[in-house]
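Predict the structure of DNA recombination-mediator protein A.
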Amino acid sequence: MSQSLDIPKFDELVQELATIQQTGAKRIALLGSRHVPITHQHLIEMMSYALVLTGNRLLTSGATGTNAAAIRGAMRADPKLLTVILPQSLERQPQESRELLKQVMHLVEKPENDHLSLGEASALCNQEIVSRCQQLICFAFHDSRTLLKTCEDAEEQRKVVTLFYFD
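Done. Here is the predicted structure for DNA recombination-mediator protein A.
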């Protein structure tokens, strides 16, 4: 009886190592849960600020919590290096998010997804964000199905994935 091993191809390993060792600017996606304690939001905001301050391009979505903290930090460092991709149109976003989102230079709305549930639209949005990045940093709970699926998809695309759990 033989067992099949899922061994990455040599060129995939080389690509992953190159991404990890890259010292220049990267396209980093920062995603996470809406339900984040304020102290964690401050840490995420500082991380986002530092990533952008060092020249990295940051991609995120427009939800409250993790994503809003990422937006605030990036805006403080260099608004030109921030891209926010919304799962639906700006009008479908919570009122508390809209004021912050109106300040974003590179804001991508998806009104074609307004007929979808927020969960479905968020999954599509996360797929687009992952397709545009080299690295994903994600803050989730162990039951955050959409975010955990996004991390799996990113790993399948050989992106560098860093997953932090709140619980």
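The mean pLDDT is 90.
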